[in-house]
Amino acid sequence: MSVDLKHKNPTKQNSPLKSPLSKSNKKITKTPSPKKNAKISLIKYLVSPPKTETKAKTPSKTESKSHNEKQNFKPALPKKKLIQNLIQLEQDVVNEDTSKKISPKKRTKSQLSPIKDFYYRPPSNTVFDLQEYLDDLDVRQIDEDMNDNEYKFLKKQILQCKRAVVVTGAGISVASGIPDFRSQEGIFKKIKEKTNSENNNISMTTGKDMFDFNFIYSSPKTLSLFNDMVFDLHKKIKNTQNTAFHGFIDTLAKKKKLKRCYTQNIDGFESRLDNLTIKHPIGLKKKDWPNVIQLHGSINHLHCIKCRNVFNVEDKHFLGQINRKNGSDSLDYFLENDDTVRISDLLPDCPECAEAEDIRKIAGKRSQGVGKLRSNIILYNEEHPESEGIGRVVESDILTNSDLLIICGTTLKIPGVKRIVKEFSKSIESKKKENGEGGAIIWLGNEIPSQSIVDYVEHIDLVVLGDCQKFAEMTAKWFE
Ligand SMILES: [Zn+2]
């Protein structure tokens, strides 16, 4: 997605984009293979910047189908049919288990977990209504009562996977009190209302403007509003707990089942958990890659626009904002009465650059200037500074044959993320077997995916409809 990326033509020997696969093929073939070129274009395509969506949209053919979307889902079997199937199924399991249980005193692992001998794959896009099952049951007691095929399928996929990929969005953090961006109560709407109600001569058409590079850096006043928003959100995140679903991802990592979590969230809750890691910049070497990739940057970090060094956010970086919160109007006064103020006046100096500058001064060398620190949140209409690193990770993860894809808490509105999901889905689909072995693609959320997403992703096995936190509580029981 970055300009650099677009202009870089990988060469045979020293391309920074060379993948592990191309490395292993080096001895076999010297000429760049079409595969390699395909991979490069994939990187470009996968990590496209979150661009402002076009406002006027005529409904596409797929979108116009949306009122029919529920009909296109195959709901879980009606109870009667389900029971018939289950009787047969349970019979098989019972017969098999009984025969095995007769003689040996030490039972094998597979006998201890009958789910392992369960073979079933639901028809594509089957909806499993988690809430319906959980409503009347205590989460801690449900396990053995739940004989539903979809339930067993889900359990088996999660317990058996070895290289799970989890793609998350704001929905997984809402339970901690962090609002999402796009819903009725979301951040975009709140920001628009707040900003337009203030007497500051700034009018927003959408709250998304507050995450738009061109808007934020258009004036000191708009940058100050952005800093205000970041300050508030950062403080809120600092004072809240991660959710049960973050714990679920951590458990996958602990059990050596997590290949990678790709999150659109900037809150960084994952870094508080023992088995999850976040890193900025991601780096180009495989050994440096964290197991959580923040696709849209981080609210907890700043980077220098000159030397690119990354720093943890500290209160001192928001001095202007802190003064405002403490009742001082010095920043507002400054912004409204001093038209010589520049955008750079609102950005802290980079300590690394400052130190280097001091050394140059002592050595009598020419000044090279000190860079400014800006938020590490990736904005609309800016080049993604880590597109190359993220592209490499995605490419490598696809090649390692993931066996479970969980998409949770997102409506997949961002094209780059949608594309990542499609690529993993395609890769898993090619290994899937009808009997349920070989992996699965699970959609988890309070709402079924839109028809256009279903058509785009193509291969969703199970739509788990319900609260992802309840899902996490349920799976925690499985791992006990
Ligand atoms: Zn710097």
Descriptive overview:
The chain is an alpha/beta fold and 480 residues long. The protein is built from 19 helices and ten strands. The model is unreliable at 1-72 and 74-112 (pLDDT under 50). Helices cover 39% and strands 10% of the residues. A seven-stranded parallel β-sheet has the order 1-10-9-8-2-3-4, sandwiched between helices. A three-stranded antiparallel β-sheet has the order 6-5-7, covered by helices on one side. Helix 17 links the parallel strand 8 and strand 9. The relative contact order is 0.16. It has helices at 3-7, 20-24, 34-46, 61-64, 79-101, 109-112, 130-134, 149-160, 187-197, 213-216, 220-238, 244-254, 319-325, 330-337, 351-362, 387-399, 415-429, 451-457, 468-478, and strands at 126-129, 164-168, 258-263, 292-294, 297-304, 310-312, 373-377, 404-408, 440-445, 462-465. The radius of gyration is 26 Å and the shape is globular. It has a domain at 115-178 and 243-296 and 386-479: TPP-binding domain (Rossmann fold).
Give structural attributes.
480 residues; alpha/beta; Rossmann fold; seven-stranded parallel beta sheet; 10 strands; binds zinc ion
Name the helicity range. Answer: 25-40%
What Rg, in angstroms, do the CA atoms define? 26 Å
Beta percentage is 5-15%
Count of strand segments: 10
The biggest beta sheet, please? 7 strands, parallel
| pLDDT < 50 stretches | 1-72, 74-112
Order of helices and strands: HHHHHHEHHEHHHHEEEEHHHEHEHEHEH
Class from helix and strand fractions: alpha/beta
Bound molecules: zinc ion
CATH superfamily of the domain at 115-178 and 243-296 and 386-479: TPP-binding domain
| Strand order in the sheet with the most strands | 1-10-9-8-2-3-4
The chain-level mean pLDDT equals 76
**Remind me, CATH topology of the domain at 115-178 and 243-296 and 386-479?**
Rossmann fold
CATH architecture of the domain at 115-178 and 243-296 and 386-479, by name, is 3-Layer(aba) Sandwich
Distance between the termini: 42 Å
